[in-house]
Amino acid sequence: MDSVDSFVSHSNSDMSIWGLFLAADPLVKGVMLLLVLASIWCWAIIVDKITSVRRERRFADDFEDAFWSGGSADALYDEIGGDPNDAMTRVFSAGMREWRRAKASGLVTAARSDLRASLLSRVERSMSFTITREMERLERGMNFLASIGSVSPFVGLFGTVWGIMNSFQSIAESKNTSLAVVAPGIAEALFATALGLAAAIPAVIAYNKFAGDLERVGGRLETFAEEFSTLLARQLDEGGR
User: Fold this and answer.
1) Highest mean pLDDT among 16-20, 70-74, 78-82, 193-197
2) Alpha-helical regions (H) of the chain
3) pLDDT digits (tens, 9 = 90+) for 161-175
């Protein structure tokens, strides 16, 4: 009888979003809350990614202007300090630290070509490791966006199926199939699917956009590392001067 009374009350229920939530089955409410929390988390990640990608681009532009201005790399490294704030500067600092260690040990001016090749290889590996760490930092949260984009519609669909099953059971018990009685229960169930899509669509769009943005950031870091390695190799060919 409780299910019948609950179903009959749907005909007089509030059809607003809040009313549909309050009238939903407890399990469907749980699904709705889960999807709302996932959507909020997604938007937090989206805002953070927009900020971080723009920040990395701005700092990279400023650093490249300073690096290619014709000044000394050693002077630029001293000006930057040991704890830079952006990815490209950290890649540069990693290479310069290895370069200065080699200078201190005399490898830069060594006559043996194999020692110089080993030095250049260490500098390149140091920058490569730094690029990997920086990309892992920048990509943080991307897996969550991908997961929400692929899973949320199915979670919402589960809530919808569960709600429709309850509505059909109530219809069978009440023996009333008029649209005015059936519509509220179906609307509550479909609301879960709507929430699933509301969480999934921004997550998928954001993931695709940021995946492209981060790929370009990674390519820019790798290009800079190669150019810096070329400059250091030229210095080695000139005898470290």
Assistant:
1) 193-197
2) 2-10, 17-23, 26-67, 73-80, 87-105, 113-138, 142-174, 179-237
3) 888 887 777 777 767
Task: Answer whether 60's CB lies under 8 Å from 87's CB.
Answer: yes
Residue listed under structure tokens 């002077």: 75
Could you give the 3-state DSSP secondary structure of residue 43? helix
Q: Which amino acid is at 61?
A: D
**Cα(137)–Cα(52) distance, integer angstroms:** 10
Backbone angles phi, psi at 37, to 5 degrees: -65, -40
Phi, psi angle pair for 113, to nearest 5°: -70, -30
For residue 239, the 8-state DSSP code is T
Identify the weakest region by mean pLDDT among 32-36, 74-78, 166-170. Answer: 166-170
Asked whether the beta carbons of 176 and 168 are under 8 A apart, the reply is: no
The pTM (predicted TM-score) of the whole model is 0.79
Distances (CA, A) of 84 to 77, 89, 140, 196, 228: 10, 6, 19, 41, 17
Answer for the pair 87, 221: CB distance below 8 angstroms, yes or no: yes
What are the distances in angstroms from CA 90 to CA 58, 87, 104? 15, 5, 21
What pLDDT, on a 0 to 100 scale, did the predictor assign at position 116?
Answer: 66
C-alpha 161: how far from chain center: 31
